[in-house]
Every structure is written in structure tokens, then in C-alpha cells.
Amino acid sequence: MSKTKKSCFVISPIGEEGSDTRKRSDQVLNHIIKPVALECDYIAVRADEIDKPGLITSQVIQRVVSDDLVIADLTETNPNVFYELAVRHAFKKPFVQIIKKGERIPFDVAGTRTIYFDHKDLDSVQETKEAIKRQILEIEKGGEVETPISVSEELQSLRQSDNPEDRGRAEIIGEMSQLRSVLSNIQEMIVEDKSRSKNRESEVDFELSRRNYSRIQFRKTRNLIEEIRRMENKSLGFIIICSALINTHPWVFNLAEQLNFAIINRNSKYASDIFNALNLYILNNASKNEEESFHTFHMISNYLTNDVLDYARSVGVGIDDEIPF
Description:
By secondary structure, the protein is of the alpha/beta class. The chain is built from eleven helices and five strands. The chain has a five-stranded parallel sheet with strand order 2-1-3-4-5, sandwiched between helices.
């Protein structure tokens, strides 16, 4: 007797017949999703494959709510896809998220594990199928399904708890949510900068392009710092800023992490040592760089000596500012 197949509804941008969106969606469905779903004893169906008579919108919502599994393709950030995925989240039922390589995951679902794929690369297709299979096998072990909605509910419960440890956990979760928002904005700025640089390089000579890129980097850092100033934990924000230097000055990023650790643990002596070493290094590097980079380094130093220093003192960490500025 053959095993009964379970139901899997595929949420995906479909597009008009003959469009690039339809062609890509069909390839992903037929060569990635359906084979791995079948291997795991699921029958995968997309909205345009529903052959039952009736109102298609109602049938789609019914499948989104009731199917054993949903696989959502977030490519092209299609509004219908995110509406249907939100419905699935609300019911806290199993789902798998996938997205084309090179595309940005929107902030609202950025914290959820998502599989990247390249449907034109056979190796990537195989890796994607294996990753989806692993997630399905993990889902079938049971347990509570975590969604942005369930995390929000848990956060609210922790904030209202009489237990100080629970309220502390809520504060950390809230900071991490804010951090994801800032990182999402950073990613948008990086994508925009790359696009601008590419366009300008085709129109101007190398020297002008280099200067424009430095100015763009300056504006990006300035905008980034403005975004981070919204965060309550300024030392955590400083880590994000220093992540921009991780390729050229990796130990600065590591020291920023140590500074945040020292502030969290109220270790004034260690925080002072790290603070002064960081600022001295940043200022020394500023003096060795050209004008645009000089201003960028000074903005970072200014955030450290003002925002981070004020934040540390506000939480009871007395940093001894030994370097004259």
C-alpha cells in the first residue's frame, strides 16, 4: 500500500504567461521544489495549478492555512507572496523560505532562516534541494513553529513578566530586532552605492570615479551613523559602524566587540583601555588617508567619543578619556 502524500502549497510570484517571472518561477517549481517535495512525500502545488472550481483567492487562502507545508519563494518581493506568507505566519504552521541569490530579504522576515538559490547553476540547484530537504526533515520532528508573529508575542509576554531575567531577555530581543532594522537599512545603502558607482564608472574617468566613490562612502557612513543613533545601546551601534572596516581593519571590529562586552559587564578599567586604544588608532589612520577618508574616520571617532562615551557613563561605566582631542 503506497504512503499517503502530504500537501505542500507553493507561494511564489507567477507573472504573465511568457514573462521572465513566469519562466523563472516554473523552473524553480519544476526543477527544485516539486522534486524535493515528492522525495519527502509531499505533493507541491502552486496557485495556478489549482483545478478545483470556485473563487481562486479563497482557495489560495485555504491552501495557505490548511496545507501541511508551505514553501515561499520571496524572489522579486511580490506583495501577494508576503501577504500569503503573513497569513501562514499567523497560524504558526510549518513553512520554508527561499530566495534568488543576490536579492535582499525584507526586514520583516530577515530573521527567519532562508535558503538562497541560483536556478541557472546546477550545483546551486542541488544544494538548494538538499537544504530544503533538511528543513523539511527538521519540521517533521515536531516542535513549535517560530514566526515573526510568535516572536513578537513572546517578547510582549517577557516584557510583562514579574521575573527580572525575563524582562532582561526582552530587552536583548528588542535590541536585536532594532539591530536587524539598522542592518536592513545598511544593506539598502550598500546596494544603492554599488549601483551609483557602476553607473558613474561608465561616464567618467577613473580618477573622478574614485573621488565620487570616496564621497559616497562618506555619505553612507554619515547616513549609517544617523540610523544607528536611534538605537539605545550605542556601543552595540559602534560594532555595526566598525563592521564597515572589517576587511581593511579587522581588529578594530574585534575591539569594538570587546568594548561593548566591557560596558555590558560594567568593567570601567577594561572599557577605558579599549576605548582609548580604539580612538587613537582611528585618529592615526585618519591622518594617513586622503581628505574624504579623513572625514569618514573623524565621524567614526566623533561617534565613539560622544555617543558611546555618554552611553557608557549613563549605565554607570566610568571611561577615563586619556587622549586629548
